[in-house]
Amino acid sequence: NSAFPESLYQYQTSSSLSTRRQHHKPRQTYDLNYFFPSLLFLLFHSIALILPPLPLFTHTHTHTSAMSVEVTPSKQAAAALDSLKMESPVKKLNFNPADKENQPLTSDVATATEKTDVQTKPTQEVAKNENKIVIAPGIKEHEKDEPLLQENGQRFVLFPIKYHEIWQMYKKAEASFWTAEEIDLSKDLHDWNNKINDDEKYFISHILAFFAASDGIVNENLVERFSGEVQIPEARCFYGFQIMMENIHSETYSLLIDTYIKEPAQRTYLFNAIDTIPAIRKKADWALKWISDESSSFAQRLVAFAAVEGIFFSGAFASIFWLKKRGLMPGLTFSNELISRDEGLHTDFACLLYSHLKHRPNKQVIEDIIVDAVKIEQEFLTEALPCALLGMNSNLMKQYIEFVADRLLVALGNDKVYKSSNPFDFMENISLGGKTNFFEKRVADYQKAGVLNSTKKAQEDTKVEGENGGDFAFDEDF
């Protein structure tokens, strides 16, 4: 029996199942997809009955009759936009007066803007404004018709050149470019320590102290006044180049003081010469007075700064040329040749601009400016030269200043005042070409190759402009 219990169970189970299958009827099945839409409808209908109705955006209008307005989707969107408040953090800031255009318009302003028509200027008023002459601030009433000072709509475009003499001055300055790194000061310190006495050191250090500050004053005038007042592009080219060269001059003089003066206190004293040396302070005050003077005309200020570069600098240049005559300080004397040539060109440029002015001061005004500058320069030289040096003293320097002042007066159309002769033979040929031996690295009257040649050739081409159609010509170095 124990061998067949599992078989017996399987037999009984299978027989019972077969018997039930014979008597069992198949069940009826239903498809749920048939009832799903009805069930979904009943669900939403029940929710609608239970919950309160949702509010809709409505946009009502006030009319004379109490008619209801149909709410459409577009009106709902418009009402929603009206209800929004676009408040960004920027709009909550306190606006400056210049930023008022960024603020949202109030309802009153917006209404006024919508109702106000654009006001147009009358044709006569527009024509009047177009013909109105605009000049820089500080220009006097009688100078409004000066061609150099009137607002020039073509000042941003350089060609065609209209003032050829002024343009030639710029090209001449461009051809004379140099940098402070070209000055060799390796031999100067030996001469300073071994060949120059204390009186000469005192004199030279005061000269360098004035030079170190003076170029910055000249640049102050160019940046603050002249560059904004003169409107012709040819002159602005020159002024832009002059500003750069004055920076190089100032750097060179600072390097000279740094090389020769080793004591920090003495070096600081010279670098602050405008505040520490009264005679230099007086020269600086005289120049600064003309920069800030609002009562003087452009012509007067032009003459004043011609005196600064033509008179205030001339005595200092002569003193350093005196060292060259003695064969001392080759780096200092070479830089002096370069700088004196540049400053002479700047003075000539001031005289050239003066010749283009229609309204010039009377000769007495010009003479007073020059004479005043001569007195201040003579006081400075008396203090800088307290004792006579070999071939150099304050009286000779005063005479030389008068000689230079007479030359400047003549260049400005005046007569000589002092009628003094040149007391220094070594200054006679300064305006001539520099002479140097074959082994010297460079002469002080060098020019950049091709710069002046190109301008000369351009002048020749201008004469035959009709033959070549006015085409721009380049020189061989281009």
Automatic annotation (TrEMBL):
Gene3D superfamilies recorded: Ribonucleotide Reductase, subunit A
Entry-linked Pfam families: Ribonuc_red_sm (PF00268)
Known EC number: 1.17.4.1
Annotated keywords: Deoxyribonucleotide synthesis, Iron, Membrane, Metal-binding, Oxidoreductase, Transmembrane, Transmembrane helix
Cofactor: Fe cation
GO MF assignments: metal ion binding; ribonucleoside-diphosphate reductase activity, thioredoxin disulfide as acceptor
BP terms from Gene Ontology: deoxyribonucleotide biosynthetic process
InterPro entries linked to this entry: Ferritin-like_SF, RNR-like, RNR_small, RNR_small_AS, RNR_small_fam
Region span, Disordered: 458-478
Transmembrane regions: 32-51, 302-323
Similarity comment: family membership: Belongs to the ribonucleoside diphosphate reductase small chain family.
Protein name: ribonucleoside-diphosphate reductase
Source organism (scientific name): Colletotrichum orchidophilum
